[in-house]
Amino acid sequence: MLKLSSFFIANLALLLPGLIFHRPLLADTTDPGGLIQPFDAPVCYMETGDGRILDLSHLCRTQPAAPTSRCISGADGMALSQVNYNGNSLIGQVSNRTCVPVQLVRVNYQVLDNQGNPIDNGFIYAEPTIVPPGTTASFEGIVVPGVEVNVTHVEWSNTEASDNGF
């Protein structure tokens, strides 16, 4: 019984300010069904000087967005992000923008000295080993200290057929 009354009191405390200070919001005064319920939030609206909310959805209709996920093949099929070199290790993420699962994603890098000359190169495998389309894998590895590390390219094996890779 104590739990039920505590639940009731907690919910009443949350709802009480809304009940005391609530004022109705009108969407369109010419439309008798235009009353906006307190929990309805129109996407396209205007607030008048006297505090009324007018629903302008009929003016703000938008066309459906074109699909943004397009399959990318070749070298641009794997996108790098959040790449960071801290003097000791190279970390980052690589996103699969192809339409097929890829495996054994290998991030190739080059370490440069203070004159910009290459002093080492290597690669780091990303995890997980298999990266489905639209997902991201992470890579992290210890590298030879240098002034700068540049990722030169990303290689991978297509799990269905060889698209890019080794």
Description:
With 166 residues, the chain is mostly beta strands. It has one helix spanning 2-20; strands spanning 25-26, 35-36, 45-47, 53-55, 78-85, 89-96, 102-112, 118-125, 130-131, 136-142, 148-158. The strands form four sheets. Strands 7, 8, 9 and 11 form a four-stranded antiparallel β-sheet that branches. Strand 3 and strand 4 (53-55) form a beta hairpin. The longest helix is centred in the N-terminal third of the chain and has 19 residues, at 2-20.
Average of pLDDT: 76
Task: Give the SSE string.
Answer: HEEEEEEEEEEE
Radius of gyration: 28 Å
Principal-axes shape call: elongated
| Percent in strands | 35-45%
Name the poorly predicted regions.
Answer: 21-39
> What class would the helix/strand composition place it in?
mainly beta
Number of helical segments with 4 or more residues: 1
Helix content: 10-25%
Q: What is the straight-line distance between the termini?
A: 68 Å
**What summary fits the major beta sheet?**
4 strands, antiparallel
In total, the number of strands is 11
Question: What's the gist of this structure?
Answer:
With 166 residues, the chain is mostly beta strands.
